[in-house]
Structure formats: structure tokens, C-alpha cells
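Handout, section 4.2: multi-component inputs.
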Amino acid sequence: MNINEIDTIKNPTKDVVKHELQPHKPTIFAETIFTIGNFHITNAILTSWFALLIIITISISLRVKLKKIPSKFQLFFETILDGALDLGDQVTGERKLTKKVLPIALTVFFFVLINNWLGVFPGIGSIGKLIIQEGHSEFIPFFRGGTADINTTIALSIFSVIAANIFGIISIGIWKSFNKFINLKVLIKMFTEVRKDPTILIVAPITFFVGLIEIIGEIAKIASLSFRLFGNVFAGEVLLSAMAAIFAFGIPIPFLFLEILVGGIQALIFSILTMVYFTIASQDHDHDNNEHDIQYELNNDLLNESLKKIEINS
Amino acid sequence: MDGLISTFHIDYKIIIAQIINFAIVFVVLYIFALKPLGKLMHNRREEIEKGLSYAKESKDELIIAKQKAEEEIKKARIKINDMIGEARQKGDDMIIKAQDIAKKEAQKIKNQAEKDIIKERIEIEKSIYQKTAHLVALGVSKILEEDVDDKRNVFLNKKAVDFLKENQNI
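Output:
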């Protein structure tokens, strides 16, 4: 007996009894539970609020119980933070940058992780209401994994990418950040350094065009982040419901564990990618270019000296 | 694009709501958990590092103190040995001095005793002579059976004494 049948028995109405109950198939979008004005409160939003509540509760209880000699609860989070710092160092390359980036990356990690895990939590996706539409009954779950809704993952991706760019502006300045996308600097160089290096006439437009591609790259970042997470989580939900449809007991258990693992991995991937975007945004491309220029000039000097020596010898 | 939006039910209002949701999570997590926890861990690490450096300093100081103590002990041993040597020397000197004094004293006592002995001997000899002479005089008077007056007595005594002196070594 599934939850739909239980719900039907608890609320027997003439209309419901008439229609055949269909097993719940996960939809690709989050269903609306209720509306506030024009705003649709979906089951994914409800789960996200629940996740928010969990994080707030844990954070406040951690703050209240914070001691110099840590309890097991505090030690658990200290271990996570310490591990995250070490992992962050591997991504950013320096502790100073890690300390700046880590709060956002860790928030992403916890938010995604809790939303992912809530998706496989008993009751999420299986407790809901029956709606009769166009002659057949439809089961709408009250809760749905927050990250199983593309709106949530897009929101997270937009936040990450915009925050990374703001961080980049703060780190290297607005002019350098702007020149990453619309490279006016290289266009100006094209006119000022054409005598010194005529190849700039070919290199500069390409560099400018690369900058424009960077803008598309930023949009691609949002798309890749959001669709990767959504795809994995939603696929997991489909897999679980398919397994439960085959046989409700026993068979879904290994897949539940798999989904718990996938939830953790996806949260980690999302947070690490966020850190990578922050690190890239905080790096000055001109610095690297200057290094190349210096190397180029050194090579030229060496070449000139060699030519002079050959002339003298000849 | 419209197809994508309608298929996935992409709604900008929900996206904004979720961004706000996430921002709240970030603020709460940062203010209540990450910042104080990070600060606490940083302080603890600093304290541990301070403690370790202090322990290292203490260890170094201990090593230096041990070295100093060993040096002092060495110095003290040398000093003690010197003092013992000096004391021994003084003791030996004192013994020698005491022995000299004792020897002198003994010699003095010995000399005095010899002198006394000689004196006594002379006195004893004198008295022996006198008594012997008296006995001789008595014997002679008995032999002669006559009274020997004082004049005669003195004469005989004198003669006897002279005789004894002459035959002292017999």
C-alpha cells in the first residue's frame, strides 16, 4: 500500500474513489503547493526553507555551545572546517585567499548537501495531497529535494558566478576585471605598440575576441553548474522512484546509499567549482601577460646581442 | 529558450527567492558558525604555537641551565679538590709542626730527666759515699776497738772516700 492509497483511504471522497490511482512519477519541475499573490510556493522552496531552518538551528546551537575545549559536536565542525581549509588551499594555492573564499564555498556545500540529502529523506516526495485534474487524480508531494528543482540550482549558480566576479573586482580592481571581458587595453595597445611589435595587429583582435568569449563562458558556468547538479539529483530521484516501483522493500536501499553518496559528491563539486571561479576571478591576467612580455623582451635582447657578436666576428 | 523555460518551469521569482534564501544561509552560517569557529580555532592554534615555542624556549633554557650547572659543578669540584689538597697540606704541615714541637718537648723532657737523673745520681752517690764512709768508720772503729774522735773520724772518712774514688771502676 503506497502513500497515495493511504491518503485516499484517510480522505475518502466520491470523486477520488471513482478514479484509478496512478503511482507518483517525479516531474522534471517542482509543483506548486500554494500561492502568495503571484508568487508560487513550490515543494522545492518548502524543502529549501526547511534546509535553511536546519542550517540556522545548527549554526545557532554551534555558536551557543562554542567552547575553547571543544565538545564532540563542535569538534565535528572544526574537523570539517580544518579539512575544508586544507582542500581550499589545494584549489586556491594560498591560505589567505582560501580564508576569503571558504565562507561562500562552505555555505554552498552545506546548502546543497542538506538539500540533496533531504531529497532522499523518508517523507520527502512521499507525503502530499491528491488533486483531481482532467479526470484523473494527481499526487502532489509537499516536499521535493531543493536541488531537484532547476530554479534552485540556477539561483545557486548565479549567486556563485556573480559573487566570484564581485570578488574579482574587489581583488584586482574594476578596470582589470572589465578588461577580462571587454579588452579595451589590448585595443589601445594595438595602436600604441604597433611600431614596436607589428604582430599585435593580429594578436590584439584575437585577444579582444577571447574576452568576449569569456562573457559567454560566464553564462556557460551558470548553465554547467546548474544543469549538472539538477541533472544528478533529479536522475537520482527518478532512479529511486523507478526502483521503488519495481519492489518497494529492499531494492531501493543500495540506491538510497548511492544517492547519499552522490549528494555529497555533487555538493563537493559545486563548492570546489565555486572556489575555482573565485580563484580565477581574483587572478590578474595582465600579470601573466607582463611576465610573458618580460620574457619576450629578454629573448629579444639575447637575440640582438647574439646578432651583434656575429656581426663583429664576421 | 521559451521551450526550456516552459519545460523546466524556470521562474525568475523563484530564482530570486532562492538567491535570497541562500544569502540568508550564508549570512547566518558566516555570523553564527564559520566566523566564531574560525576565530576560536585561530586563537587556539596561536596558543598552541605559543605554548610550543615557550616549551622549546624552556627546553633550550633547561639545556643551557644544565650546561651551566655542570660547569658550576665542575668548578666546585675543582675548588673542592683544591681545598681538600690545601687542607691536606695544612694538616700535614700541622702534623709536622706538632711532631717537631712534640719532639722538641720530648727532647727537653728527656734532657731534663737526664739532668735530674744525673743530679739524683750524684746526690745518691754522695749519700752512698757518706753512708759507706760512715759504715767504714764504724767498721774500723770496731776493728780497732777504740774510740775514734771526730778528728780521726773525718780523717778516716776522707781516706776511705779517696780510696773509693780511686777504686771506683773495680
